[in-house]
Amino acid sequence: MTQGFRSFVRIRELNLANEGDDLELWNYRFNYAVGVRLILDSEEEESKADDYEPLIEIVGQFDASYLSLNELSEDQLMAFSQDNVGYHVWPYWREFVHSSCARIGYTPAFEVPFYQMTNKKEE
Fold first, then answer.
1. What is the pLDDT of residue 47?
2. Does pLDDT of 4 surpass 70?
3. Distance (Å, whole) CA 86 – CA 37
4. Rounded to an integer, what distance in angstroms lies between the CA atom of residue 31 and that of residue 63?
5. What is the C-alpha to C-alpha distance for residues 67 and 60, in angstroms, rounded to an integer?
6. ω before 108 within 30° of 0 (cis)?
7. How far is residue 42's CA from residue 90's CA, in Å, rounded to a whole number?
8. Can you give the pTM of this predicted structure?
9. Which residues lie across from 67 on neighbouring strands?
10. Alpha-carbon distance 34 to 58, whole Å?
């Protein structure tokens, strides 16, 4: 069976304004971690332990960089990171998994489904 995770890790913010220039640009770099692993069905409970070693594991971290004309608040950044960053990174993740499987000779490659948006209701 396969197990996977996806997680927003951190945001780095950089002001790109030149001294004396009226135009300010903000660069926001989001770090996003994803992983997938293959385990035996009979080891599902054991796989929850920190020291568990799966049959195959592929993990990656991606940076997604965005430019903005406005400085964004922490709430705005968190709202944007909720689904947008993962959605933008996902095609690169799928390609990484498939090419990694090809390199190690594991066929068929892990099935990486289409990106699913979180289904959180507004408060």
1. 94
2. yes
3. 19
4. 5
5. 23
6. yes
7. 30
8. 0.84
9. 27
10. 9
Residue 119 has pLDDT above 70, yes or no: no
Under a CB-based contact definition with an 8 Å cutoff, are residues 16 and 25 in contact?
yes
DSSP string of the chain, one letter each residue: -EEEEEEEEEEEEEE-PPTT-S---EEEEEEEEEEEEE--GGGTTGGGSTT---SEEEEEEEEEEEEESSPPPHHHHHHHHHHHHHHHHHHHHHHHHHHHHHHHT-SSPP--PPP----PPP-
| Spatial CA neighbour of 52 closest among 61, 42, 41, 39 | 39
Amino acid at 16: L
Question: Are 35 and 57 in contact, with CB atoms under 8 Å apart?
Answer: yes
Distances (CA, A) of 100 to 13, 76, 96, 105: 31, 35, 6, 9
C-alpha 41/C-alpha 65 separation (Å) is 38
What is d(CA 5, CA 33) in angstroms, rounded to the nearest whole number? 8
Distance CA 54, CA 75 (A): 37
